[in-house]
Amino acid sequence: MADRTLLGYLAAAGAISIYAGMFTVGRAGSAAGLDGYDQTALRFLVSTILVLPFGMFTLKEILGRIGLRRSIMLALLNGATYSAVFLGGLTFAPVAYGAALVPGLQPFVVMLLAFMVEGRKPPRSVLSGNLVCICGLAVVFLDQSGTWRTSDLIGIALFLCSAAMWGSYAYFVRHWNVPARTALVILGSISPVLFLPAYLWFRGLGILDGDSTAIALQIVYQGGLVGIVAVFLYPFAISVLGSSQVAALSPAMPALATLIGAVVIGEVPTTLQWTSIVIVTLGLAISQIGTHLLPARRSKTP
């Protein structure tokens, strides 16, 4: 059991690191002329080629076990739709905004769904941590006071939407007991069927005329690491640790994503942006500590 728990934490750390780097890779792709739709297409063109041959033999079994409706729902929550929304946010707003908003709001969404669907009341520490995160997210809007650039506001709206989608996916993967391999097949088989035909119809293959280095980066990172490795690691971690714990296990992501953006593409956050990152990180840490201490406290109760 201890070894499996360790594997769960390692899987969560690997997925979080990949997702943290995705902020900068997405922003770099946008600077190279690849919007959220283009980057999503590259991601799923690659992952589909690698996953679909395997998925063809197991998809029927998966649909019979999980159900078509649930499979489509998972594909929409963390598939091409989520990717296009999240990467679209990076087209309009800097990495620091996404690094605060997306991981900062996700645990709150998980907590809210657990209460709405199961009637599960969150521990006081988890609730406190989420409230601290909300305060950190409010600082993002303070950073906008006096400027209110339309592009940043659009990016913020897309980040909030993607956080809600990601948190919902994390909750339902656990709630429905979806294995990591099953999630990989769903996202690698169903999601491209919903997205790629529409993309090719409207845009064709013009993306291949873009910057070859930028395209190669998106193929390797979005298609390989995000589209396959992280998609496998994340639900595996959830299956071992639980959705709330994995969601609250990412206090390092905001700072890590922001630091990567500052070092790699030179997006140095403002003082208020760093303040938001610090507050969100504190909130995530409070939730994590509370989640760990709760079982011990309960075990001492006579």
Automatic annotation (TrEMBL):
InterPro entries linked to this entry: AA-Vitamin_Transporters, EamA_dom, EmrE-like
Domain EamA as annotated: residue spans: 7-141, 154-286
Membrane topology qualifier: Multi-pass membrane protein
Residues passing through the membrane, by range: 7-29, 41-59, 71-90, 96-117, 124-142, 154-172, 184-202, 214-234, 246-266, 272-294
A single GO cellular-component term on record: membrane
Localization: Membrane
Pfam family, one: EamA
Keywords tagged on the record: Membrane, Transmembrane, Transmembrane helix
Similarity section: Belongs to the EamA transporter family.
Protein name: DMT family transporter
